[in-house]
C-alpha cells in the first residue's frame, strides 16, 4: 500500500511533467486560483520511496468550525487501473482526517462511456430519446466500470447530476480527438473534414469577412472580461470578476514551463472584438475553458473562427485531444441546453462520460448538515 504525505509544489509539478497529461485542476497553480480554499499538494510513495501519484487538495472550511470539505477536483492522479483502489485511497483519507476533513470529494479522471457525433445527432432527432444515457454508447470502458464498482464497495457516494450538470466538475464533456486510432496525429484537413457542413461554412465565412484571430496578453484581459460580462448578461449566468482571470493567468503560467499553459484568444472584425476565449493546455490535453462573444456582428462568425484557431494551435502543439468541456446529458430537442450540445457536436468530436464526483463522509452528522446547507442554497 503506498504511503501518503504532503509534498512541495515543485515535487508535484515535476511529477506531472513525467505524465502524458493531467487535469489543470490538479496542478499546484490551481490552488492559487481557488484562493477561497486552502490548498495542499499530496504525494503517494511506494515501498522504494519513489513518488508514484499526486493530488491537489482544496480545503473548504465550515463556518465557525475547524472542519473542512477536502476536495480533489478531477483527481487524484494515481493508478486507477488496478483492483485495489483502497490501497491508494485509504491512506489519503487517513491523512485528510488528521487535517480536520469531515468529508472527502474526489473526481476520478476515468472515462466510462463514449458516444459518436452520429449517435448524438440520432438521439436528438428521436422524440423518444431524452438523455444521452438512453443511447447505447460506441464504447464502454472496462476500467471505468471497475473503478465505479470499487468506489461503491468502499463506501464512496456518487454525486448525481442536478439540472443537467454535476454538483462540481462536469461528468459529461465533448472532445475532439486529435490522433487517429493508431496514435498518429490527425492533420488540420482531417479534423476540418470531420466537422459538419455548417461549421466548415462558418469558418470560411469568418475568413472571407476578414475576422482576425490573435493571441492576447495579460493587458488584453480587461477587453475579454468586458465582452464576457456582456455574454453573461445575454445568456443569464453570473460572471466571474476580472481579478479571477488575472489570477488564473498568473498562477497557471508561473506554474509551468509551457508558455501556452494559459492562452487568451481575441477575434476581431474591423477592429471590433467579436469573440474572445481562454484555452489551457497540460501536456497532451488542450481545453477550451472560457468564452465570450458579441451580440453584434454575429454574422461574421467570430466564435467559429476563434475555436478553429484554438484547435489548430492544439494540433501544432502535438495535443492528443481538444476538450470543449462540459455538456448536459439532455438530448431533448425542446431543452434550452441542447443548443450547447449541437454547437459542440458540429466539431465532429465525441461525447465522453467520466466517472463523476464521489463523496466519502468521515463525520456523518457534519456531512448531513453540509448536504442540507447545499440543498437550501440550491
Note the quaternary state here: single chain
Compute the CA-based radius of gyration.
21 Å
Major pleated sheet: 9 strands, mixed
Mean pLDDT, all residues: 94
Main structural class: alpha+beta
Quickly describe the structure:
By secondary structure, the chain is α+β, with helices and mostly antiparallel strands. 35% of the residues lie in helices and 27% in strands.
Task: Characterise this structure.
There is one protein chain. The chain has 378 residues and is of the alpha+beta class. Helices cover 35% and strands 27% of the residues. It folds into two domains: 3-108 and 357-377, Aminopeptidase (3-Layer(aba) Sandwich); 112-139 and 164-354, Gcn5-related N-acetyltransferase (GNAT) (Aminopeptidase, 3-Layer(aba) Sandwich). α7 packs across α10 (302-316). It has helices at residues 9-16, 28-33, 85-98, 117-125, 142-153, 188-194, 197-209, 221-235, 242-254, 302-316, 338-345, 364-377, and strands at 3-6, 38-45, 51-61, 68-72, 101-106, 111-116, 139-140, 157-159, 161-162, 165-166, 172-177, 212-215, 262-269, 272-282, 285-293, 321-326, 350-354, 357-361. It contains twelve helices and 18 strands. GO terms for molecular function: aminoacyltransferase activity.
